[in-house]
Amino acid sequence: MIHIKTDEEIELMRKSCRLAAETLLMIEPYIKPGVTTNRLNDICHDFIVSHDAYPSPLNYRGFPKSICSSVNEEICHGIPSDRKLRNGDIVNLDITTFLNGFHGDTNRTFYVGSPRKNAQKLMEVTLECFHKAIDVVRPGAHLGDIGATIQQHVESRGFSVVREFCGHGIGRNFHEEPQVLHFGSFGQGVKLKKGMTFTIEPMINAGKPELRILSDNWTAVTMDGSLSCQFEHTILVTEDGHEVMTRIEGTPV
Ligand code: MF3
Ligand code: CO
Ligand code: CO
């Protein structure tokens, strides 16, 4: 069942989404060569807790940390560690907050120091497909339109879409119905309705789409070792379109 949120629920959820977005803004200046992903985790944890919220990943299905940090060929669900980020790396930080009984979920991929050419190209295409997909969200559109839009753009640029992970409904539960695939066909799948809230979070690989899971049982990495990039927002379907609940006005993503 897909939960349709009431105006009261939406107002509460906006606060959680805003905090998740603010956490990403807050952490950006700390992302520099030499910083460990553990330190980024700890700063985010303290920020979230000091705003009376809980970091949703912590202990979620046994996940041991408060954020996910995925570096270079890591696709998602990387576990913060003593690994030091290096100049030229890309790192995705995925933040989910639980506040007022609602989750807000957002992630961004950042450059560490000076970007490499190949990373820049992947980042551009990932952002483009992400924004094109958000733009199709309105009542009456189909979930398949989102996936098809992403797949078409990414594959036309010679990159690939990860199939094993998808966006998801979100609200009182971290993950709820529907599943939001990042590939598919126009006109297929559930019709969008005002009051639905879900994430769009395409994972795009520079090489082939296949992945494997590391022995930590969490970190997904590209099978071919190519770079992977991701962005995520929590989206509300409104009367005449959508609201990006985890976007702060004036930010580029
Ligand atoms: N935030 C991730 C998502 O976008 C889920 C992380 S689950 C965790 O859905 F356990 F790894 F934290
Ligand atoms: Co998500
Ligand atoms: Co997320």
Word description of this protein:
The relative contact order is 0.18. The protein contains four helices and 15 strands. Helices cover 27% and strands 26% of the residues. By secondary structure, the chain is α+β, with helices and mostly antiparallel strands. The strands form five sheets. Strands 1, 2, 4 and 5 form a four-stranded antiparallel beta sheet that branches. A three-stranded antiparallel beta sheet has the order 3-12-11, with no helix packed on it. A three-stranded antiparallel beta sheet has the order 6-10-13, with helices on one face. The two termini are 30 Å apart. It has one domain: Creatine Amidinohydrolase. The longest helix is centred in the first third of the chain and has 21 residues. The chain binds 2-amino-4-trifluoromethylsulfanyl-butyric acid and cobalt (II) ion (2 copies).
CATH class: Alpha Beta
**What is the helix fraction of residues, given as a range?**
25-40%
Shape designation: globular
Major pleated sheet: 4 strands, antiparallel
Name its key features.
253 residues; binds 2-amino-4-trifluoromethylsulfanyl-butyric acid; 27% helix; 4-stranded antiparallel beta sheet; 4 helices; binds cobalt (II) ion; 26% strand; 3-stranded antiparallel beta sheet; alpha+beta; Creatine Amidinohydrolase
